[in-house]
Write a structure and sequence with these properties.
With 167 residues, the protein is of the alpha/beta class. The protein contains 9 helices and 5 strands; from the N terminus they run E-H-E-H-H-H-E-H-E-H-H-H-E-H. The longest helix is centred in the C-terminal third of the chain and has 16 residues, at 125-140. The structure holds shikimate-3-phosphate (S3P).
Length: 167
């Protein structure tokens, strides 16, 4: 059975864009976890956050269980999936975990705040979130790649997965 490839990292680090490109290049399916949750709950991420972050995190937990049964799929996660140990325990049973790192300055200048409920009130909160989460991304990763450029980063992932005989 082919393991899934799970992309983790901060919001705005490029998980979805790289995930789509990666899946296409290696012939895997692609799933964006936030989109999956939106369909499952029939609500947008913003609507879920209006109900409360706990509501979204519960939906994320349910989605982690469901997506862990997939095969041969590149899964791009939401930046906060690593906050729940159970999520990562079940997702990584069947996935190879890639931490996509991107300079926080690049994230700050490019991230679309209107689509990130956690940053809507105070965009500077991203620095606090980054500090808190960085050790968790490190903890759960199998490999880490730097995203300075989408194509180069995708190629880097493919090379690393090939070297580790994952592909
Ligand atoms: C979140 C990141 C978002 C989305 C939700 C919460 C987070 O996904 O899951 O807004 O806690 O970092 P992206 O990482 O795709 O922005």
């Amino acid at each position: 059975m082919k393991k899934n490839i799970l992309l983790i990292g901060m919001m705005g680090c490029g998980k979805s864009t790289i995930g789509k490109k990666l899946a296409k290049e290696i012939g895997y399916f692609f799933i964006d976890m936030d989109e999956f949750i939106e369909k499952e709950e029939n609500k947008s991420i913003s609507q879920m956050f209006l109900i409360g972050e706990d509501y979204f995190r519960e939906a994320e937990k349910k989605a982690s269980k469901k997506l862990s049964t997939l095969e041969k799929t590149v899964i791009s996660t939401g930046g906060g999936v690593i906050l729940n140990h159970e999520n990562m325990e079940c997702l990584r049973k069947n996935s190879y975990v890639i931490f996509i790192e991107r300079d926080i300055c690049d994230i700050v200048s490019k991230v679309d705040i209107s689509k990130r409920p956690l940053l809507k009130k105070d965009p500077n909160k991203i620095y606090e979130i980054y500090e808190k989460r960085y050790p968790l991304y490190e903890k759960y990763k199998d490999i880490k790649v730097k995203n300075n450029n989408i194509s180069e980063c995708t190629t880097d992932i493919i090379n690393k997965l090939t070297n580790k005989e994952i592909l």
